[in-house]
Specification:
Elements (H helix, E strand, L loop, with lengths): L11 H39 L3 H15 L3 H12 L6 H12 L16
């Protein structure tokens, strides 16, 4: 059985600081949830286009992010746009193709569509 400790009331001087800290945490958590959703959508695009295994999707994003010095979230936004018909910058397309080649596909094949084309 789980027991909960009763909360002590905050002194009036600490209440404003606590509220400000908690508001800051809420903002950070909302950003994290939004970022996670964007990355998940990009992984879905990679899975659909390249037929890579789901576990490889994040690894591909991470590798391309490291090689292009683009934050994972920004790269994920590019991949989502690419999935909807936008072009990828040539350097990103090349790195994406190379990263995908290093990860297994769900069907066991190594050939995959090119991001640059």
């Amino acid at each position: 059985m789980m027991t909960f400790r009763a909360q002590r009331p905050l002194p009036d001087t600490g209440r404003e600081d606590a509220v400000a800290r908690l508001e800051g945490e809420v903002v950070q958590l909302r950003r994290a949830v939004d970022s996670h959703a964007t990355v998940d959508q990009a992984i879905g695009v990679l899975i659909a286009v390249y037929r890579i295994v789901p576990e490889g999707g994040f690894e591909v994003l991470r590798e391309v992010s490291q090689h292009t010095n683009i934050k994972v979230r920004a790269l994920a936004e590019m991949v989502i746009g690419w999935g909807m018909g936008a072009a990828l910058p040539p350097s990103v397309a090349g790195e994406l193709d190379e990263a995908v080649e290093r990860h297994p596909r769900a069907d066991g094949h190594r050939e995959s569509p090119q991001a640059g084309g």
